[in-house]
Amino acid sequence: MDTKSPPSERQLSATKRSAILSGAMQEFLAQGYAATTMDRVAAAAKVSKATVYSHFKDKEGLFIALVQQLQEKKFQVVYGSPEGKRLQGPPRQVLHHLASNMLENIIEDKPFQAFMRLIIGESGRFPELARAFSHHTPRCFLSILKDYLGAQSGLNLKDPEATARIFIGSLVHYVIFQELLYAKEVVPFARERMIQGLVDLIVNDSA
Amino acid sequence: MDTKSPPSERQLSATKRSAILSGAMQEFLAQGYAATTMDRVAAAAKVSKATVYSHFKDKEGLFIALVQQLQEKKFQVVYGSPEGKRLQGPPRQVLHHLASNMLENIIEDKPFQAFMRLIIGESGRFPELARAFSHHTPRCFLSILKDYLGAQSGLNLKDPEATARIFIGSLVHYVIFQELLYAKEVVPFARERMIQGLVDLIVNDSA
DNA sequence: GTCTATACCAGGATAGAC
DNA sequence: GTCTATCCTGGTATAGAC
After folding, report:
1. Which among A194, A69, A84, A203 has a CA at the least distance from the CA of A139?
2. Is the pLDDT of residue B9 over 50?
3. What is the distance, to the nearest Å, from the Cα of residue A136 to the centroid of all Cα atoms in its chain?
4. Domain B11-56, what architecture?
5. Count of Cβ atoms closer than 10 Å to residue A66 Cβ
6. Is residue A60 within 8 angstroms of chain B, CB to CB?
7. Which part of chain B is CATH 1.10.10.60?
8. Where in chain B is the domain with CATH 1.10.357?
9. pLDDT tens digits for A62-88?
């Protein structure tokens, strides 16, 4: 018996590949594209640099593969969320619940915030990735909300889709501003107040 | 007579300094922090690299100086905007005008968009700059809008500040999403429809 | 398929002439 | 105060052993 890895002496390609992607995620999310070095990626993945290059063409290829993987995996969590199903119930409750969950999910999820930073920060150099992000991410969310709002005749909304965009946009902006740009430390604004303000604006039953 | 610069053979320090900042702006806004090289900054400023280092301690110092300068100069244009004065008039008109101007200003101003990308993208590495941005930028704008909304008793707003944040947040998010992330090419949404939706949501007089 | 070792290049920063 | 020339580190990518 030696001190090496007991289960499988020779690890297979798929294992290495996912280890590399995992290391790449750690580095790219923390440092951004240009500041990340293949050395550190290899170290984080506990793999030699040459192995990284045998699995991915170059730094750019690795980055693109990583982002695509994150889009597919991370997103179902944040945007697909508990409400993959259609929404139903009284607007006040549904909207409050929806906003609350969305903020909670994103604010807790630091890696996802780093991912937002990365996508926005690198959107100049990697426009394709930004386009893919715009295309896939808020699609289902927006569409579900739009349908729900459109079906609530009691709300008297002139443009349900615009309303849905305002709803989501306000919340995403809240996260970008308060969290990514540290506004919470400098011009704080309670999460609950934001949510309540948004719900009141949309529902607006004269209570 | 030689072929060199006729006006002043030896340029002064202040001139060089602003040339360097100008070159730095060009490079940092286009490439981001890490991908920008001091060589290219010097070239863009038509100055030797040593001169750059005589005016600024290092790359980081140059970057910070640049961002601070941009905050002070660029901002009065975009956020101070035509409405530095207090707002007055009927809500529908004022809000529509305000939103329209704000979007117009930001969407036309590509350098400012690059600046947003930069601030968000580098907010992990330069949290101080992000904090300064959060602190100064939308301050006056938000405050003016909040006061205006609070004064319009006809609107029946429960929380004018929350409403003001939703207003600005929706619009900023619109820019980030549609412009910076190229959503306009992939899930387009008319600017005017966004503005109208926002105004309708806030004003909401049953016409 | 994976590692070690290395080629090659570029970037940040500085020394020294003028 | 500004330039030219240079140092040195560290990065991407690959060659060759196992």
Report:
1. A84
2. no
3. 11
4. Orthogonal Bundle (1.10)
5. 24
6. no
7. 11-56
8. 65-203
9. 999 999 999 988 766 656 555 566 788
- Least confident residue range of A8-22, B26-40, B189-203: A8-22
A182 conformational bin, left if phi > 0, alpha if psi -120 to 50, beta if neither: left
Pick the CATH number of B65-203 from 1.10.357, 3.40.50, 1.10.3470, 1.10.10: 1.10.357
B contact residues 158-187, partner A, Cβ 8 Å cutoff: 158-159, 161-163, 165-166, 168-170, 172-174, 176-177, 180-183, 185-187
Answer whether any strand D atom is within 7 A of the Cβ of B68: no
Contact call for A165 and B34, based on CB within 8 A: no
Q: Would you call B194 and A125 a contact, using CB atoms and an 8 Å cutoff?
A: no
> Which residue's CA is nearest to the C1' of nucleotide D4?
B48
Residue limits of CATH 1.10.10.60 in chain A:
12-56
**Closest nucleotide to residue B48 (Cα to C1')?**
D3
Band of residue B72 on the pLDDT scale cut at 50, 70, 90:
confident
Instruction: For chain B, positions 92-121, list CB contacts with chain A under 8 A.
Output: 114, 117-121
From residues 20-59 of A, list those within 7 angstroms of strand D by Cβ.
36-39, 49-50, 53, 58-59
- The answer to whether the CB atoms of A134 and B196 lie below 8 A apart is no
Non-local (6+) Cβ contacts of A127 within 8 A are B182
Q: Best mutation site among B115, B161, B170 for testing chain A: the one with the most A CBs within 10 Å?
A: B170
CA nearest to nucleotide D14 C1': residue: A50
Task: Label each residue of A150-207 as H, E or C.
Answer: HHCHHHCCCCHHHHHHHHHHHHHHHHHHHHHCCHHHCCCCCHHHHHHHHHHHHHCCCC
Distance between CA atoms of B189 and B174, rounded to whole angstroms?
A: 9
Are A170 and B166 an interchain contact pair (Cβ–Cβ within 8 Å)?
Answer: yes
Strands, DSSP E only, in B66-153?
none
Q: Which fold has domain A12-56?
A: Arc Repressor Mutant, subunit A (1.10.10)
Residue limits of CATH 1.10.357 in chain A: 63-203
Q: Is the Cβ–Cβ distance between A92 and A207 less than 8 Å?
A: no
Q: Compute the distance between CA of residue A39 and CA of residue B101 in angstroms, rounded to an integer.
A: 48
Question: A63-203 has which fold?
Answer: Tetracycline Repressor; domain 2 (1.10.357)
Identify the three-state secondary structure at position A124.
coil
